[in-house]
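Researcher: Structure for this, please.
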Amino acid sequence: MKAKSILARVLTVISICIAIPSCSQRIASSIEKAEHFSFGERITVERIEQLNFRKAEYCPPGKNTCISYYYGSPLADANLNYSVTFGEDERENIVKINLSRDSLDRSYFGTVILLHGFRTSKEFMLDSALYFRFLGFQVIVPDLLGHGETGGKKKYGVNDTKYINSLIDNLIEEGIIKNENIYIVGNSMGAVTASHISSLRSDISGVILLAPMLQLDEAVYNYAKRDHPILSRIIPERDIRKGAILALRKSNINLKDTNIKPLLKSSQTPTLLMLSDSDQISPYASYKQLKKDNIKIFKVHDRYHPSMNTIGEIEHKAIVKWLNTTQ
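Model: Predicted structure, token format:
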């Protein structure tokens, strides 16, 4: 969405909130109707085809909504290179990978399922998907509900679980993937889906959570403080949080189900959390107290939330070290 459109929406919300005692309904509507970002500046359709990502669709039995996803096979290239720029000015991040096959101590195998964040789509995860393909994995990269080319209403990572879980079962039944060495990588809202799926299945070898989303009311409030500081000072915090709760209620989702910390505390699945000390949406400080034998937390420096969906060279070192403990 263009900056002028975002500004217009913010000004509308502010004007309404000044005029009425509570604006939580308006905030809920803004969350529900928030458009997803265009991937055009990130990657082109031609580039996707060049990289041999194959698009497919899965329609779960008894459901009216079909899941759009990409499949990618392992890469045999001698080198992997990409450089992605996020943001601008004081919030600019450049995430790079420059790897040679000779630099890898070993090769890996299995399947990695990559799940995107709120208002993005599967295309925003393709650089990270390339990274895992280079390591030796096949990848599945779906659109979550109400995002990209997948229809339906937004389900905030929670009710997406049954769709993605059914997709995994179907891929196993069709022989496209095996029910071994399955890893799930979830970014932001996608981390909610990844955590719920891991709690349901016994065939998940590991989970990687990139800047995992906090409970939705807290995530929305953090977003308002960072990107709309004037709005967050004018509108009471309780109304912002209530707006998030109302948006969930309209989708028949409980607020507590967007909080993945209880799932992480009860899980025995090997889990790697990657969090940045500069991320104001999903701060490192919010997860650093999670201490379990199966949970590893890696702190990334000076990365803002939007850039955390892409794996760079620093994260690569942490990931291969962690993978070596799971395979």
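Researcher: Any notable elements?
Model: The chain has a mean pLDDT of 92. The two ends are 41 Å apart (CA to CA).
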